[in-house]
Predict the structure.
Amino acid sequence: MALLIQKFGGTSVANPEARDRMLAKIQAARSNGDQVVVVVSAMGRKGAPYATDTLLGLLDETGGGDGLTRDLMASCGETISACLVAALLSDKGTKAVPLNAYTARMSAAGPYGDAEVTGVDPQALRAVLASGAVPVVTGFQATAPDGTLVTIGRGGSDTSAVAIGAWMKADYVDIYTDVPGVAMADPRVVPEAPFLSQLDYRSMYRLAANGARVLHDRSALLGERFGVRIRVRSTFDDGEGTLVSAEPLPADASAVLGIAANKTTDRAVVAVVCREGTAVSVVSAANAAAKAAGAHPQDCPDPDALSYSCAVDEASAVVKALFKAVVTP
């Protein structure tokens, strides 16, 4: 019997059809005899009524609010998701209990909006499991040393799940999203981009830190610290996804790990993330492709990545050009 932490992102809880697929994943694991702890994000993306950006937008209409106010507001989306998912599971015959940062005993320290997880007391979660129920935990939120609620950075539900897996010594943390693993480029932009069967922690962190949003960068570092095996999988198919672990990449793996885009309000930075010491083998082709697509080289803090700046609306074209130049055989 395995202990699994299953984290479901916003698209996995966004509508009834997606939620049915999510429930099927949970119930299938339970049918296999596994113990399951569920971690959920807020439902949907900006514009959806309970999405984090929608909720924060209400505060922006009033002047923004201070850090405490914004974190309390931001945490509401995950609380709604946890209650809904627990109710849906219970209605289908699988007893479930919603827990927030306080009842799940997840601690963090640091500033509002960007605190770092410092620990999880697994006693409460183990008690729910011992009762035969599924704990459904709010991602993204934790309790500060002074007892206030803080959030742990956008995308932090991944880190919540890995933290629970670390302190509970789970067999796997499964991060369910709307794509079947980690691809070498955003599959919405480059549909032919291959998905990777495995990545080591450091490679996953570098991809995430350079803009690949399929996994939160801090979750990769936390996984490395505790040796948590992470699987990035899709709610919408039954594939194995991408395993992130301490296992090194094969010696014959591609020089390029992937192409990631990090977008701000008016500019985008597109990075070609390479294996250690291999960027030199693709720099000429990458520079030429980026220039032709209208992007400009810029300094990158990652010594094994090539970074290019462009307008946000040009980012997809730059990603496509770089993929064709340095990944396509």
Remarks:
- The first strand starts at residue 3 and ends at 8.
